[in-house]
Amino acid sequence: MTGPESMTMERPALNVLIVEDDVVDRMACRRTFASSQDAAFTLLEADSGQHGLAVAQQGQLDCILLDYGLPDMSGLEFLSQLPQSGPPVMMLTGADSAMVAAEAMRRGARDYMVKDGEGRYLTQLPAAILRMLREQRLLDGKRRAEAELRKLAAHQESIREDERKRIAQEIHDELGGLLTGIKAYIGVAIERAGGKADPLLSEAAGLAQDAIATVRRVITDLRPSVLDQLGLWAALEWHAEQVAQRSGLRCSCRIEPDAAELELDAGRSTMLFRVVQEGLTNVVRHAHASAVLIDAWRDAAGLRITVADDGIGITEERLRNGASWGIIGMQERVRHFGGELQIVPGEAGGTTLRLQLPLDGLEGTA
To answer: N or C, fewer C-beta in 10 Å, the chain?
Structure first.
């Protein structure tokens, strides 16, 4: 089918809310949308901020046209009360309101238009709304894709953690048991030989003991049993001691009582341990530090953990280049649980890892 009817059917149907106290401006917008060939606009009207918020909560809106000067609130206050999941907003501002427009965009408005006294903006309004909605769809698609990628990354990390645990258990049961048996047999052979035992047997016993120690270290690196048996805080203190012994760093761990009383689930505990572990690994490899301090406490925002060293520090260039993939991985782990991780220069030199994790719904958070 061709002609005007088919063109009308192909036009998108859009519900637009205009929040504007000026009756003349609302009438002008109504006429503009009624005559538009770009889309089939349905215009809903509100003459105050509260009225507009109520309409926005009631039905399906494709977008909101928002005037800055409302009788009961400013457009910026309207934006602050509109849920983040609400429809995209186009702010309508005066000709001399560039600062207002910039602040509106910062607070969540998707676009803005300048209302000129002659009403020339009205001719551009339908096309501007369609452009804004196209950009919003692209943005929504990107956000959905990013959310799916984060879910996939979190799932893969969970699989890797389970695999580490399984491998560690198999090494402990199979290889650890085998080496322990070999050492025991060598010990029996030495006892039976008395003072005539071949010196190679003693050397073999020593090698077996070294192999057992290596197996234990590999098992610990894969999945420290202290994390499962005694929990996160004991695991962090234990790991700090291990790092100090292996690297010679003065590695301290300070857990405040209000943090120690938290009962974290297995997923959060594993994530926090791995992030601190990665942070300490970076200190040992790159910081050239002599001391590092792990701090954990609670505040109004939730759980806070910092890993601060006294090394050479980190530059913005290093944070931006490919060497920061490990940092990006840590940030994604934390973000999966709604937290935030930053790597910043220390106040007295060195580098500080800052981690903040919300604790809504966890035991021990009252």
So the answer is: C
Q: Is 227 exposed, middle or buried (0-12, 13-18, 19+ CB in 10 A)?
A: buried
DSSP one-letter string for 279-328: HHHHIIIII--SEEEEEEEEETTEEEEEEEE-SS---HHHHHSGGGHHHH
Torsion angle of the four alpha carbons 122, 128, 133, 139, in this order, in degrees rounded to the nearest 10: -140
**Cβ burial 64-98 (10 Å sphere, 16+ → b, else e):** bbbbbebeebbbbebbeebeeebbbbbbbbeeebe
Q: How many C-beta atoms lie closer than 10 Å to residue 262's C-beta? A: 22
Strands ordered across the beta sheet of 351-357:
250-255, 291-299, 302-309, 351-357, 340-345
**Amino acid identity, residue 166?**
R
Per residue in 123-180, pLDDT (tens digit) is 899 999 999 999 989 988 898 888 888 788 778 878 888 888 889 888 988 888 899 9
DSSP state of 258: H
Q: What is residue 240's three-state secondary structure?
A: helix
Full-model pTM = 0.62
Please tell me whether residue 355 adopts helix, strand or coil conformation.
strand
CB atoms within 10 A of CB 10: 8
Q: Phi and psi dihedrals of 265, rounded to 5? A: -75, 170
